[in-house]
Design goal:
Elements lengths: L12 H10 L1 E5 L4 E3 L7 E7 L1 E7 L5 E8 L5 H8 L7 E4 L3 E7 H10 L1 H27 L2 H16 L3 E3 L2 H8 L3 H13 L3 E4 L2 E4 L1
Antiparallel strand pairs: 1-7, 2-6, 3-7, 4-5, 4-6, 8-10, 9-10
Helix pairs in contact: 3-4, 5-7, 6-7
């Protein structure tokens, strides 16, 4: 996929040429770790195809899903960490086969100075991620786990354009910051309520 084909980012021919000159492309398989928490950020990713799952872990190793990065988007956490020579505060994992254009950190400032549209792109990403993180805080604070679980299933189905997820109860629990036994009980109740159907490592929306 070319830079001018992706939806969220429509660079001018000039900046597209710079990004192509500066960057390098790498493809990751489903489940492959792209960036580990506490690792130094050497390049900014722009997702060309596929999607990335961004997670945060607590001191006990429990993980929480923060947001997804889709085609045409980048990770604002990488921008901020990389620009300040800080380590990553999140873990990024390929949700499916994902192709990424990496822009070296030392080139990011040059792009900001040369192309106002690049800075506008960063600000729009920051705004979107801030809203998504507020949604996570609101969900954890105000919503019951069963509502969060159903919303998560719907969102992930929409992301992959399917009505059936191939996922274990353990994976769901990890991404929601809960326990497997609790998630299993809630899924069983959802099945009895006619919201989903369950089979081995599969959940289908009704």
């Amino acid at each position: 996929m070319e830079l001018n084909d992706i939806i969220e980012f429509k660079p001018s021919p000039q900046i597209r040429e710079r990004l192509t000159d500066f960057g390098f492309t790498k493809t990751f398989t489903e489940g492959q770790v792209i960036l580990n928490e506490n690792a130094y950020i050497k390049a900014i990713p722009i997702v060309m195809s596929g999607s990335i799952r961004v997670m945060r872990a607590d001191e006990d190793g429990r993980e929480l899903l923060l947001y997804y990065i889709n085609a045409g988007e980048s990770c604002i956490m990488s921008f901020l960490g990389g620009m300040h020579q800080d380590t990553s505060k999140v873990t990024a994992i390929a949700e499916q086969e994902t192709s990424i254009l990496f822009i070296p950190i030392d080139k990011v400032s040059l792009l900001i100075k040369e192309f106002p549209e690049w800075l506008d792109y960063i600000f729009r990403l920051y705004h979107k991620r801030f809203e998504e993180l507020l949604d996570v805080v609101n969900a954890i604070t105000f919503k019951k786990l069963d509502e969060r679980l159903l919303n998560y299933i719907k969102k992930k189905c929409a992301l992959t354009n399917t009505r059936t997820l191939t996922v274990t109860h353990e994976q769901l629990a990890n991404e929601l910051g809960s326990a497997r036994v609790v998630v299993s009980r809630l899924l069983k109740q959802m099945e009895e309520d006619g919201l989903v159907s369950l089979s081995r490592n599969k959940i289908s929306l009704k």
